[in-house]
Design a protein that fits this description.
With 121 residues, this protein is of the alpha+beta class. It contains two helices and seven strands. The longest helix is centred in the N-terminal third of the chain and has 17 residues. The protein is rod-shaped. The model has no long low-confidence stretch (mean pLDDT 84).
Length: 121
Amino acid sequence: MKTPRIFYVVVLFTVLFAGTSCENTEACEEGNMGTITLQNLGAEGNLHLYINPVRIGSNTPGDLSVAPGEKKSIDLAAGVPNILVRRITSTCVESRCQIRSATLEDKTLDISACENINMAY
């Protein structure tokens, strides 16, 4: 009689724990998201990050804007986005201001889920 009871206990534990998994998934895996971190090492001018840019004027704000000495991040879907990084500076003399922009990076990235791409200029 002890053998059937042990058998039923083993079957019960097997059924109870068969559906549980020890594997944890991170939010970035579930959302299939990656991160781009942009750091502005310059003393003047904001860095602007454009994701899949179409038409950009000289002072068009980017998807991410980073002031001098700061670092910011943006989450985006994993994939192969085109990115453009520009430094936009402005100098004003009396009532006239001049805006300049310089392209620092123009390339295609391959971002995987949970990947963090660091960029510093």
